[in-house]
Amino acid sequence: MAPDRFSYKNFTDELRERLSIVDVVGRRVPLTKKGQNYWGCCPFHNEKTPSFCVSEEKGFCKCFGCGESGDIISFTMKINNMDFKSAIEELANMAGLKMPEYKPRDPKIVQREESLFDICEKAAQTYAEKLFAPEASHALAYVRNRGFDDDMIKKYRIGYAPKNNIIANKYASSKNLIDSGLCRRGEFGMYDFFRDKLMFPIFNAKGRVVAFSGRSLDGSEPKYINTTDTEIFHKRKTVFGLNFARDAIHRANRSIVVEGQIDAIKMQVNGFPETVAPLGTALTEDHIALLCKSNRNITFCFDGDGAGQKAAGRACGIVMPFLRDTSDIKFAFVSGGKDPDEILKTGGVDAMRKIIDDAMPLVDFLWELANKNYIVSTPGGRAQAEKFIDAQLEKIADADLRKHYKQEYDKRKFQNWQSWKKPAKTVNIKLPDIDAITKNTLIYIVNTFPELAERYLEFLGTLGVDFDGTAPDLNLDVAAAEKYIVSLKLQRYLEKLNMQKRELTTQMLSGDESVRDEISRIDDEIEKYSEKLEVLISI
C-alpha cells in the first residue's frame, strides 16, 4: 500500500522551509522580479507575454493565463510528470536532506507535541503574570529602564522566571514537563531551568510559543540561556522575531539581522520592524534559508568589536550559497562598544538609520576580509588571500553570478595588489648591487616568512630585488632569517655612513672646516653600529 500523503507532513514542511519556490521554479523557468513577486512565461502552455507569477512570500506559483498553480511539490510533479514520492525525492536532493522512512504519524506523537505546545503556552502566561509581582520589581525596573513600555511588554509577552521552582511546582502533573526543556530532574526532584531570568518567549512561524530565552539580571554570564532543543523547538532552525517581522520584511524588501533579542525588539519598535536575531551568537545555514524564503536582501548589523567582526565573517561565509543575482547582502557595524539599543537611545532613529544605510555591500566586505586577514603586500600573503576569496566564491551556486564576482575581484587584484616593494623615502647614495647569494637568500626569506617581509618592508624595498622570483630552498628558521635581515640592514647602514664620511672628509680637505663636527658625529655612529653588528654576528 502506498504511503498516505499525510504521513509525509513533517518532511514536506521541512522541504518548504528549506527550499525557495523561486529557486525551484527558476531552474525551469527564467524569472524576472517585479515588485514583490517574480514573473515568467508559463511552462504549461505556450505564451509570449509572461503571466506565470511566483510568490516567495506565499510559497506559491500561479499562471493567470491557463490557471495552473501550486507549491514546490505540485510544481515539481507537474513539470517533471512524476508522482508525489518522486517529486519529494528530487526536492530532498536539492535541499540536501535524506529521505526518511515514512510511516503514518503516530497519534501519540501528535498528542505529545500538542502537550508540549500547551506547556509552553501556560508557562508564558505564568511568566508574564510574574513580571508584575512584587518579587519581580528588579526585573520590571530593568525592562522599563531599557525603554520597554507596557504595550511592548504585552506584544512580545515578556515575563519573569522567579527564583523558586514555579513551573515545576505548578505543572508537576504534566508527564512531558521535562521534555519541554522548562524543568530538569535533580537529586531532590524537579527544578526549573529558568530562575531569576527576564523571559522572552520564542515563537514558531505560526506564532505559537515553542521555547524561551532567559536573560540574566545580575550581570552573570552568559547573558542569555535558551531552552534546549525539543521536539517542537530547534534552535538552529528558529529566528527570533521572525513571526513579528515577516510582513515588514516584504514591505521593506530586506531583513536586518542583529545579535540579541533585546536589540531585535528595540529595532522593531523604533522604525525597523524587519529586524530579527539568531538565538545566541551562532548564525546557521538554516537561519539564512528561513530569511531567504522571506527575502534575499539581508543587512547584518553587528557590534564593531572583534567578536562582531568575527560574527560578520562567519555570516559572510554562510550566506554565499544563498546568493542570487537579485540578492543584496550588506554588513553594518555599530562602533564605540555600543549595540543597536544604545544607538537608538543616544543617537535616535536617524543615527541608526545612517548606520544601516551606510552598510558595506558583500562584495566590498569579502574583499576587506581578505585584505585584513592576509598580508597582501607579500607574494605568499596574496596567494593565501586569493585562495580564501576563491573558496568563498565557489560556494555561489549561480555560475554566471560566480563568474561576475571573480571578474570583479580580478580587477581589484590587478589595481590594488601591486608589488609590495616601496622606494626608499630618501636615497642620497647609490649602494652596491646585491650579490646573487644575498638576493636568493632574501627571496627565500620573503616568500617563506611573510611576517618578516611586512616587518622590514621599508628596508627591503630599498634593495631593488624582485621578490616574486624563485630561490633554492634554504634551511633557515624564522629566528635565523630575521638575524640575516638585521645584519644586512646594519651592514648597509654602515656602508652609507662610511660613504658620507668620505664625502665630508673631501670637503674638509678642500678647506671647509664646518663639516668637522658632522664627521665626528658619523664616527660615533659607525662605532656604535659596528659594535651592534659584532654582537649580532657572535650570537
Can you characterise this structure?
This protein has 539 residues and is α+β, with helices and mostly antiparallel strands. It has 4 domains: 5-95, DNA Primase, Chain A (Alpha-Beta Complex); 107-233, DNA primase DNAg catalytic core, N-terminal domain (Alpha-Beta Complex), CATH 3.90.980; 236-418, Dna Topoisomerase Vi A Subunit, Chain: A, domain 2, CATH 3.40.1360; 436-538, no CATH class. It has 22 helices and 17 strands. It has helices at 9-18, 21-26, 72-80, 84-95, 107-130, 137-145, 150-156, 166-170, 242-252, 261-269, 285-294, 306-319, 340-346, 348-357, 362-373, 379-393, 399-416, 436-448, 450-455, 457-460, 478-509, 516-538, and strands at residues 32-34, 37-40, 52-55, 60-63, 69-70, 159-161, 183-186, 189-192, 197-203, 209-216, 224-226, 239-240, 255-257, 275-278, 297-303, 328-334, 360-361. Strands 12-14-13-15-16-17 form a 6-stranded mixed β-sheet, sandwiched between helices. A 5-stranded antiparallel β-sheet has the order 1-2-3-4-5. Strands 6-9-10-11 form a 4-stranded antiparallel β-sheet. Helix 13 packs across helix 14, helix 15 runs antiparallel to helix 16 (379-393) and helix 21 (478-509) packs antiparallel against helix 22 (516-538). The longest helix is centred in the last third of the chain and has 32 residues, at 478-509. The relative contact order is 0.05. Residues 1-7 and 419-432 have low confidence and may be disordered.
Cα separation of the termini: 85 Å
How many structural domains can be distinguished in the coordinates? 4
- The rounded Rg comes to 33 Å
Residue runs with pLDDT of under 50 for 5 or more positions: 1-7, 419-432
The largest pleated sheet is described as:
6 strands, mixed
Structural class: alpha+beta
Task: Compute the average pLDDT.
Answer: 85
CATH class of the largest domain equals: Alpha Beta
